[in-house]
UniProtKB/TrEMBL annotation:
Name of the featured protein: Probable membrane transporter protein
Keyword Transmembrane helix attached: yes
Transmembrane segments: 6-27, 39-68, 80-98, 105-127, 139-163, 175-192, 198-217, 229-249
Localization per Swiss-Prot or TrEMBL: Cell membrane
One GO CC term on file: plasma membrane
Keyword Transcription regulation: no
Amino acid sequence: MPDALVQAWSMPGLLWLVLTIGIAGLVRGFTGFGTALIFVPVAGIFLPPAVVIGLIALTGIASTAALLPRAWGQANRPEVGLLALMALLTVPLGLWLLDRLPIESIRWIVAAIASVTLVALVAGWRFSGYVSKLRLGGIGAVAGVIGGLTGLTGPVVILFYLAGRATAQSVRANTILFLAALDVVIVVNLLLRQAVTLNTAFLAAILAVPYFFTTLIGQSMFDPRHERLYRWAAYGVIGAAVLTGLPIWT
């Protein structure tokens, strides 16, 4: 066990991972989303996709303690419950694809999904139609596949909420609740597949410390009156992470 901890502390790129997860915590604290969009492209430079997915899910669970109490009372729990249920059913499919696709292909998929999400949000895409339970379930199902394959647990649901007419407070609460549920689902699936090693667990514990505290700082910064500022700050950080994590650099 000590050897695994030493390896976690001495891994190449640890400083960059700590810095990235700290920035991601700030963004998640004041927007309710963004951790995976920021962390996954950068972490993919140093680690294989399966380890990145384990890290993002484990650290996500750690941050839940900071965000969930406030979000629980503000979220639309029945709606989020349906999204999470459908994601639960499809995460195994994403993990199955993860085992079969080349690492380089997965990194390009991460870059493509994050880029499309960012462009759609920056362009101000809006959905004003009626969302039936069937469509809502479909959104959750797609989120589960993408989360299991890439670790990007939020883009589909984030795009759905931010592109709609919901208030910043509602978007923030719903995404926090959904991402917390999906993180648990992914970790359980990884444990059943024996895909979480001691090295990954120790590295997640190291990263969870800065992530937890910067998430609290970000949450204390949240003010519904500055919704536009929060969104554009998040967009800028996500864009920088996507560019940094493009496979062309390594």
